[in-house]
């Protein structure tokens, strides 16, 4: 069996095992190990395993993952999401659809602290859904807004998905975070426009609530400014090269911890939960990373990724056609697969292909731009039917709303996402302008 | 797809004595790992502040971050396994009888235990090599052998937990 056949068979076997409920990380680990042993030898594999697990995890870049998760967990457990949502709704809640826009605004702020969309969705599901229900926001509309707002957790830097992309393609995290900013703000803006259109067509979907007096608005804002200041310091510091992403994440985690303690909103029970929550989230990411490491070592032995890139390069296809095909592939895969596993599995093949194409930019710029496009597509995969992780998370919290209604509520936002994706494909400047300006 | 659910304490986990001890042990290890990450974050923050105020940070802090991340990863994995928190796709098997999915899950847990056991054994050998060659970190000169050995021990614990979760699935169906 050639390397090509082995890789193909391994890929199919892995997908089959995942379909049979095998944990995603384990499927990659076991098939990767089997493939590695087949293409080289058992002793070679065993000696590869002597230090790989240790040195994979003792990676300076990788340490940002648990640290950012810790920062988000402290923010979440100290009730920051509720405060952010209250502040935003004090300012815009009296507009029609204003509470929904407040969710988007608060998610944008929370996304600047938290790098995970599932955590953002779950947090706002608990913090904002009861309020939306109380003001009689439409069923699918209110859950849809939360599911979509949750994607801002990864779209707004810091973002776990971007860190994983940076690690697996050996790109600069700080530059990826810079590139993500404008598309992320564009996302919030587009979501607010969609909300405005939805409530204009159906005023019952998002009724306005009474206006809040000015003093109260400022008081609500005053409550969240320390956390927002931390977010700005962390992200600004990483952008400006004042500290590395790991240092930024450390400063952020410690600051959120200190703010929680000072505000007395972080009792021991919540600290404990924050740490355990971090442990579980980080562990499942690490398990997938370990699996992907071994599986990709197997793929590299089979030489499929480099051969596929050369083959496609020789075909001389138009670069944009290849790019669009890859993005379409991601949207399809994202509809049925875990997003993290999806990018870790596909990047070893897709990334060399994209790098070999000529878009009239430097290789680094293409890599960063492609990372942002992948991020947007992952965001779509998180909310799009049939399997949108965020929709599942909202449904688990809002048991009174049928999941089909949530999917219907999400649809207009997905249309906005597709438009944003098209804009970012057509105008790489949207992603790269800030990177170039800060360079 | 099973979502990586936000951590919620599981009251069911405290039923059996073994279950209780098991949960307690993985929780303590996970808490220790989390505390280690927080401690390292504090150290790095202090280093950043010192660099800002005095122009000179704590040298080699990044090596402590690296070692702490590896130790943290291995400290977190057993907790995740005890809670069966790993990402699985259940779209294609949701119509199978419960008994069948339980057996599948138990089989995968056993496979996980076996692979992790092999991997831990290789880590023991890796630690021995590191001691023999006196491999240390560049700046602080921390011997890697201890850290790798600690990861190996936690790996054995993970394999143990995975085999216990397999047994628990077959016996009591959760």
Would you spell out the secondary-structure blueprint of this structure?
The complex is a heterodimer of chains A (439) and B (174).
Chain A: H1 3-19, H2 24-39, H3 42-49, H4 52-57, H5 64-77, H6 80-92, H7 98-111, H8 117-134, H9 139-155, H10 160-169, H11 173-201, H12 214-239, H13 245-262, H14 268-302, H15 304-315, H16 319-336, H17 339-356, H18 363-383, H19 389-397, H20 403-426, H21 429-438
Chain B: H1 17-54, H2 61-82, H3 98-132, H4 144-172
Helix pairs in contact in B: 1-2, 2-4, 3-4
Shape of chain A: globular
C-alpha termini separation of chain B? 18 Å
Biggest sheet overview of chain B: none
Rounded to the nearest angstrom, the radius of gyration of chain B is 20 Å
Order of helices and strands of chain A: HHHHHHHHHHHHHHHHHHHHH
Provide the structure class of chain A.
mainly alpha
Say how many strands of chain B there are.
Answer: 0
Number of DSSP helical runs of chain A: 21
Question: Structural class of the secondary elements of chain B?
Answer: mainly alpha
**How many β-strands of chain A, per DSSP?**
0
Query: Termini distance of chain A?
Result: 48 Å
Q: Overall pLDDT of chain A, averaged?
A: 90
Report the sheet-strand fraction of chain B: under 5%
List low-pLDDT spans of chain B: 1-6
What percent of residues of chain A adopt helix (DSSP H or I)? over 70%
What do the pLDDT scores of chain B average to?
Answer: 86
The value of Rg of chain A in angstroms is 22 Å
Instruction: State the low-pLDDT regions of chain A, or none.
Output: none
Q: Biggest β-sheet of chain A: count, sense, barrel?
A: none
Q: Give the ordered list of helices and strands of chain B.
A: HHHH
Largest interface: A-B, 70 and 69 residues
């Amino acid at each position: 069996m050639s390397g090509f056949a082995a890789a193909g068979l391994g890929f199919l076997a892995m997908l089959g095992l995942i379909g049979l409920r095998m944990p995603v990380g384990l499927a990659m680990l076991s098939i990767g190990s089997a493939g590695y042993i087949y293409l080289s030898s058992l002793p070679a594999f065993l000696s590869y395993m002597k230090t790989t697990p240790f040195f994979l995890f003792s990676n300076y870049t990788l340490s940002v993952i648990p640290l950012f998760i810790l920062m988000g967990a402290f923010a979440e457990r100290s009730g920051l999401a509720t405060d952010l949502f209250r502040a935003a709704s004090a300012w815009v809640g009296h507009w029609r659809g204003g509470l929904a826009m407040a969710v988007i605004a608060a998610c944008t702020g929370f996304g600047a602290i938290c790098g995970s969309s599932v955590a953002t969705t779950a947090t706002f599901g608990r913090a904002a859904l009861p309020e939306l229900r109380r003001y009689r926001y439409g069923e699918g509309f209110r859950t849809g807004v939360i599911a979509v707002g949750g994607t801002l957790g990864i779209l707004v830097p810091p973002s776990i998905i971007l860190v994983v992309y940076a690690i697996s393609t050996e790109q600069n995290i700080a530059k990826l975070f810079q590139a993500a900013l404008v598309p992320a703000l564009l996302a919030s803006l587009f979501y607010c426009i969609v909300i405005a259109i939805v409530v204009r067509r159906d005023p019952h979907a998002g009724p306005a609530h009474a206006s809040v007096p000015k003093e109260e608005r400022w008081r609500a804002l005053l409550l969240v400014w320390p956390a927002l200041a931390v977010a700005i310091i962390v992200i600004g510091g990483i952008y400006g090269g004042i500290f590395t992403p790991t240092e930024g994440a450390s400063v952020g985690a410690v600051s959120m911890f200190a703010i929680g303690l000072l505000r007395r909103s972080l009792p021991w029970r919540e600290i404990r939960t924050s740490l355990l929550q971090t442990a579980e989230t980080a562990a499942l990411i690490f398990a997938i990373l370990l699996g992907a490491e071994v599986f990709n070592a197997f793929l590299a032995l089979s030489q499929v990724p480099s051969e596929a890139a050369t083959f496609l390069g020789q075909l001389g296809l138009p670069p944009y056609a290849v790019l669009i095909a890859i993005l379409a592939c991601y949207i399809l895969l994202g509809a049925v697969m875990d997003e993290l596993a999806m990018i870790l599995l596909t990047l070893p093949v897709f990334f060399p292909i994209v790098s070999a194409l000529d878009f009239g930019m430097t290789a680094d710029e293409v890599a960063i731009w492609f990372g942002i496009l992948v991020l947007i597509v992952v965001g779509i995969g998180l909310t799009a039917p049939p399997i949108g992780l965020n929709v599942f998370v909202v449904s688990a919290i809002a048991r009174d709303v049928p999941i089909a209604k949530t999917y219907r509520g999400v649809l207009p936002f997905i249309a906005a996402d597709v438009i944003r994706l098209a804009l970012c494909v057509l105008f790489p400047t949207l992603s790269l302008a800030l990177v170039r300006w800060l360079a | 797809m099973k979502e990586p659910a936000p951590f919620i304490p599981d009251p069911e986990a405290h039923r059996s004595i073994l279950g209780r001890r098991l949960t307690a042990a993985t929780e303590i290890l996970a808490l220790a790992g989390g505390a280690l990450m927080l401690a390292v974050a504090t150290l790095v923050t202090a280093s950043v502040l010192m660099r800002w105020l005095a122009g000179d940070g704590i040298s080699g802090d990044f090596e402590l971050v690296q070692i702490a991340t590896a130790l943290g990863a291995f400290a977190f994995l057993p907790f995740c396994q005890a809670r069966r928190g790993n990402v699985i796709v259940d779209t294609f098997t949701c119509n199978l009888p419960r008994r069948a999915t339980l057996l599948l899950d138990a089989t995968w847990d056993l496979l996980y235990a076996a692979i992790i056991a092999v991997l831990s054994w290789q880590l023991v050998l890796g630690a021995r090599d590191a001691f023999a060659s006196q491999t240390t970190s560049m700046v602080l000169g921390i011997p890697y052998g201890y850290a790798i050995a600690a990861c190996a021990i936690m790996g054995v614990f993970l394999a143990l937990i995975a085999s216990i979760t397999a047994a628990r699935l077959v016996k009591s169906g959760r």
